[in-house]
Amino acid sequence: MEARKILLTEDEMPRRWYNILADIKMNPPLGPDGKPVKAEDLAPVFPMNLIEQEVSDQRWIDIPEPVLEVLATWRPAPLVRALSLEKALQTPAKIYFKNESVSPPGSHKPNTAVPQAYYNKVFGIERMTTETGAGQWGSALSYACSQFGLECKVFMVRVSFDQKPYRKSMMAAWGGKCVPSPSTETRAGREALEKDPHTPGSLGIAISEAIEAAVADGSGKTRYSLGSVLNHVMLHQTIIGLEARKQFEKIGLYPDVVVGCAGGGSNFAGLAFPFVLDKMNGKQVEIYPVEPAACPTLTKAPFVYDHGDTAGYTPLLPMHSLGHAFVPPPFHAGGLRYHGMAPTVSQLVTEGLITPRSVTQLDAYQAGVLTARTEGFIPAPETTHALAVVVEEARKAKEEGKQKVIVFNWSGHGLLDLGAYERYFCGELENYELSDTEIAQGESIFRNYPKPKLLKSGS
Ligand SMILES: Cc1ncc(COP(=O)(O)O)c(C=O)c1O
Q: Quick check: pTM over 0.90?
């Protein structure tokens, strides 16, 4: 029997993260004066040890021992061969997934929540604030804070708060406090509610609220934490791809195709960046970030400078953006409803090192259900977007008669997303594709901002 699960021992767990900033050129984040942001400008928001990581150009960064100890609760994560899915698709392709749903909160998010909580703790911080879309990030940070004895306050996008009441209970189980966003607790929240009292909320608004809550606290003991987008978040997630590379080495294979869904970019980056490094060193590998057609940041939005949040509290980041005022339609993949994208992922797209794709909600659910019925595990709605492309690639391999090796990131389980599955089974979910007019409306917001340069790494 061919190995179904490729496992690593705890001793084989990577001891260092891979920092892609050592290998690519980036436009700097800009402050309100249009000049590159200085580390001290970010100090009220993040602890200095994380700010240093955010701007580090050291290729390999040691993972602190206390972080490794917590990660080892569920890591190394298995690399699983999706044999039953392969059979159902009658494909010659070999499909593997990195199962990140085995963490306590059920997703890849604690890979960065744990180090972020640790670095805050050693910096003397007592309380963390954050936003959450689908609830996975809020759960992950609540869990991580509980591991290091920190308080956690989570602003959860209202549409998800209403759709997923058990996420709030999960956060409460780890001692986290969760409120729906927009809330009346912050100026950014109150302004959003004044504009539209029935707004479904957005990640952009929730980020503004969480930053404001951290900075306004005034005690000096509260900091904000972001679950995606930033360089240090991508860095922490690379443990996924570094493990996957070792697992493929064990079975003497190397992937032809690497796939991950992309909301802010972190689970995709986590799996993909170590393979991007290989690609920059000459390996042949196709790398696909996948996003929803309803929020097509990488596939349709321009590469610009824009804020990461709605109120404009964050620096201007060089990224693909639908405009920071963008309120996405309430489709059922909460974690993929973000207007922007990680600057590092955006940069790789502009350089053609990775190729973004978008899929519709119904194609995503169809692939998710096919996978549940074959592999057994029920994927998170976000993960189903990666699956839709995996299914497409496996069918293409069949047409071409090629025995490709495909790997994708199983970014989370869908066991708290069953309401969305229920709506899919009842035929209530519809496809929604963002129109060019809507995209043009979003663009008006950053029209007068500085423009990032088109940089080419290695030149
Ligand atoms: C299970 C899952 N997958 C993917 C994502 C998308 O985020 P990112 O692109 O940062 O991985 C989320 C975000 O909430 C998520 O919960």
A: yes
